[in-house]
Amino acid sequence: MPAIVEVIAAMRAELKAAFRAIANRPSFSALVVAVLGVGLACTIFMLVMVNTFVLRPLPFPAPDQLLSAGFVTPHSGDDIQDVASKDLIALRRVLDGKADVGGFTRSTVTLSDMDNAERFDGASVTANLWRVLGVAPLLGRDFTAEDERPGAAPVAMLSWDVWQQRYNGDPAIVGRAVRVNSAPAIVIGVMPPHFTYPYKEMIWLPAMLSESAAPDDGYVAVMRRHAGVAEAAVHTAIQAWFAD
Known about the structure:
Radius of gyration: 26 Å
Number of helices: 6
Shape: extended
Strand order of the largest sheet: 2-3-8-5-7-6
Largest sheet: 6 strands, mixed, barrel
Mean pLDDT: 80
Low-confidence stretches: 31-56
Number of strands: 9
Oligomer: single chain
Strand content: 15-25%
């Protein structure tokens, strides 16, 4: 017991000395606290990143079959550049029988119901992208090839959060007429809870693919190689196409 009392007394003395030092040098103490705070924030950030990208697998079935492709230019370094609409269509032909090819391009989307307009992070996705990833809408239907053809009737798919927060989880949301970027559109589906792709997108529109589209209509290509097809076979097919 006497030893414990001595330890407690020593700790009290150290704490009193520390508080006196803080009171005597408040600016230095604030700097130390700020540095410690930044260090703690960086440590937490790194732990979150490791958990998200290393420890936690991608939330898709057979994630090892998923690949991405793009162009590398002399000025892009190690960054892969997006592919044009016509190249995405060409990749589908080149990899037929080896991999399914989808793609997306990010944008902001304004959603309104005649009034009450809101802006959301959104993306234009190819009609097959959810099937390439291995996900499906919670409600309604998926995009189809008809939806991505130029001149098709405008449609949209909502995230679960938008459905809940803006429409109170109305089960009649599928088929509802809304306005997307000031144009009329029909809601065809709602994605599952917590699903956002590729980042924090909340609304998805069908990509309008065209072989005559402008060369700067860039898409991130997402591919799923077929079971039994080696990744090297996909690489070889793409390299042969590019060499032509």
